[in-house]
Amino acid sequence: MKKIIIVCHTMRIGGVETSLLGLLNSIDYTKYSVDLFLYLHDGDLLSKIPSKVNLLPENKDYSSLLKPLTKSTVKVAISRIIAKIYSFLYLKIKRIKVENYVYKVNFHYFSHYFLKHISDTNYDLAISFLTPHFTVLSKVNAKTKIAWIHTDYSQFQFDINKELKMWQSFDHIASIGESSAKTFKKIFPKLEKKVMLIENILPKEFVVERSNAFEVNFEKEYVNLCSVGRFTYQKNFDTVPEIMRYLLDNNIIAKWYLIGYGGDEDLIKAKIKEFDVEEQVIILGKKSNPYPYIKACDIYVQPSRYEGKAVTVREAQTLAKPVVITHFDSASSQLNDGIDGVILPMETKSFAAELKNFINDTQLQKKLINNCLNGDFSNQDEIQKIYDLI
Fold it and tell me: Which of 3.20.20.140, 3.40.50.10330, 3.40.47.40, 3.40.50.2000 would CATH assign to domain 2-64+112-198?
């Protein structure tokens, strides 16, 4: 039996973690044994890990990587301080102020000089499912190692030398979408031959079963919109109140439900108050199972500023919802515009105007629903690409 180890951070609610569950639920456990190492045994999706997966014990040093300085072990705390100083100087010299991976990658880089191997097993395949990838790189023994790209690298600035040192030592680099792969190869041309496409696996049975766990009854007199994601700059939920204000001013009777959590929650609440849409934009907060809400809505909206490939979009398509996304760089690889979803302009006012038109176009919505009912969004065949690496 071939041995696989997969390394990830936690099982908190998110697209990466849902994708990991999709992968774990697709593996043939009669042929492959799977160890899963999580930095922190935390998250609402922890209980959803298949029983045939061997969850390795939590390690105090590795869990410290995800905890604040005051709760870190001494060796990780020292690494954190070194990384803070190094990253501060790097950002200042390079004059970097936008979103970046500099500190996060350097923190993991310096920490791994002090950390032990996570297992003595010699694996046939080691998968690092979420960056930074130094754990699989230096603390796992495997014949073949593969690291995942889950985001659009053009949206970040980073320590190019550390990133290159990390990525180039892997045998393969898996991108979840063609657009993300293209961007990555443009930034790291030396790594082009290592990059391969392995899309997120999302078993239909898993999504449908969870969508039927309980019933959600949205008010039928409204057009009920739903969006799921972390409350961050990337997901762009801070523009939702302004969009809703436009819809209301143009006679669209709607409610917009936001499911998730994150640092932008206060900003979103402030915008809700600013645009006087307290009754129309409703923050439902963190939900361990968002599928019944997606199933109950009339239209699923992903207003992101950028994405690698949003898992929530494919979840909504699996549940045969009319899907609306913004025109982020990888949007055309996310769905077929006008076939199984629609792509609307990124600019807020233009998006709002086009969303109003889409809401009024019930024939197009029916077309999207029918195409989604007849479509397959599971990407189940992608598991063979992983088998082929062993």
Answer: 3.40.50.2000
